[in-house]
Specification:
The protein is an alpha/beta fold. It has 3 domains: 162 residues, 3-Layer(aba) Sandwich (Adenylosuccinate Synthetase, Chain A, domain 1); 93 residues, Adenylosuccinate Synthetase, subunit A, domain 2; 157 residues, Adenylosuccinate Synthetase, subunit A, domain 3 (Adenylosuccinate Synthetase, Chain A, domain 3). The chain has 12 helices and 20 strands. The strands form 5 sheets. It has a 10-stranded mixed beta sheet with strand order 9-7-5-2-10-1-11-15-19-20, sandwiched between helices. α3 runs parallel beside α5.
Length: 425
């Protein structure tokens, strides 16, 4: 590993937290490159479970530096709460966590805007987490955003807050018909957060450039998944950033030539939170069974995830967009009890067979999956630590995924804990 990207190869919630935590053992720095507090990376170490939202998953390994880079949008209130919880549980933060001075700040008016927009959409909601992520990115590209480097300079910070509130409150009161956001709702709390956050804010572009020059091993951590990418996903049912590999360079300042690999994480089946197309979605009774077996509830929102069979068309799209060099398959053990397991190998639409993922969401919604069926292995995989330990039918299923996606397998997860993983050379 010199500089490796880890991306979600489906619609997020693929189990990236565990895989990043595992790979962090071989890294010097773990860097989060996009998204915000809408992420939920779950890591289980021994009998303890950790849910991380903004802090990179490498924080659970001693001696690793963790960076919240410029492509992330940071909610100071949520970040301080997350840091407090980590420190309460014995995780050292000082000298191990750094925040880019270029990262944009999520403020209370962004969350209010998120809620107001979703409410106004009515039946055609996007399905946001109401964490203010989209409105923060909107301000960033409208060039009215506030960055982490602005917070320590109170005069600059206050001037930008007041300027933005004048515009935001006009929309809140006159258009959305909701209460305005008052200046004191922002200024008071941020004076409390500043002493906690100021020592962490730095020029992370320089930090990462120095690390590259010193030959350090860097792991770039994405949130969400490729099919939620604002450019390549099922637009408009997407997140507001680029979770795909291209976002890793623009979100950190690491140049493309420094990237040596890209690992895609995919479940052994498919899930999605919120609205938008899911071609392999199961009928309600079967979906509920898989949801219970896989404990498929959002780590951030608690919302039940929609469940379907593995979609090779989706993962082929992720492989092409990201240039995947390895595939990490998670939650294989969830399928242990099933008699028959299906894989979508193509779509049917308008009398044609499609092997490539359509760009238009309306086409995806109208597609019918073409399945290939595999006999279940009906045996526990949770104790497997080597490829040879897996039941033959489980190996055949994984080999089919490898062949259908065109990406070599690197890791197979057979349980939530660190050690419940098979490494494939």
């Amino acid at each position: 590993m010199a500089c490796t990207i880890v991306v979600g190869a489906q619609w997020g919630d693929e189990g990236k937290g565990k895989e990043i935590d595992l790979l962090a053992a071989d890294a010097d720095l773990v860097v989060r490159y996009q998204g915000g507090g809408n992420a939920g990376h779950t890591v289980k170490v021994g009998d303890q479970t950790w849910v991380l939202h903004l802090v990179p998953s490498g924080i659970l390994h001693e001696g690793r530096l963790n960076v919240i880079a410029n492509g992330v949008v940071v909610d100071p209130q949520a970040l301080v709460a997350e840091i407090d919880e980590l420190e309460r549980r014995g995780i050292k933060i000082a000298g191990r966590l750094f925040i880019s001075d270029l990262a944009h700040v999520t403020l209370p008016y962004h969350k209010r805007m998120d809620e107001a927009r979703e409410a106004r959409r009515g039946a055609v909601k996007i399905g946001t987490t109401h964490r203010g992520i989209g409105p923060t990115y909107s301000d960033k590209f409208a060039r009215i955003g506030i960055r982490m480097g602005d917070i320590p300079d109170e005069a600059v910070f206050l001037n930008k807050v007041r300027r933005n509130l004048e515009e935001k409150n006009h929309f809140f009161v006159d258009y959305y018909k909701v209460p305005e956001v008052r200046e004191e709702e922002i200024v008071g709390p941020y004076r409390e957060y500043l002493p906690r956050l100021k020592p962490l804010i730095t020029d992370t572009v320089r930090l990462l450039q120095d690390a590259l020059a010193q030959g350090k091993r860097i792991l770039l951590e994405g949130a969400q998944g490729t099919l939620l990418d604002v450019d390549f996903g099922t637009y408009p049912f997407v997140t507001a950033s680029n979770p795909s590999a291209g976002g890793a360079c623009t979100g950190t300042g690491v140049p493309p030539q420094a990237i040596t690999g890209c690992i895609g994480v995919a479940k052994a089946y498919t899930t999605r939170v919120g609205t938008g197309p899911l071609p392999t979605e199961l009928p309600p009774e079967e979906e509920e069974r898989l949801r219970i077996l896989g404990r498929e509830y959002g780590a951030t929102t608690g919302r039940p995830r929609r469940c379907g069979w593995f979609d090779a068309v989706v993962v082929r799209r992720a492989a092409a967009v990201n240039g995947l060099t390895r595939l990490a398959i998670t939650k294989l053990d969830v399928l242990d009890q099933l008699d028959v397991i299906r894989v979508c190998v193509a779509y049917r639409h308008g009398g044609a067979t499609l092997e490539d993922f359509p760009n238009r969401t309306e086409v995806v919604e109208a597609c019918e999956p073409v399945y290939r069926d595999f006999p279940g292995w009906k045996a526990s995989t949770s104790g497997a630590r080597r490829w040879e330990d897996l039941p033959p039918r489980a190996r055949a299923y994984l080999e089919a995924i490898r062949d259908l996606t065109g990406v070599p397998l690197g890791l197979v997860s057979v349980g939530p804990c660190r050690d419940e993983t098979i490494r494939i050379p």
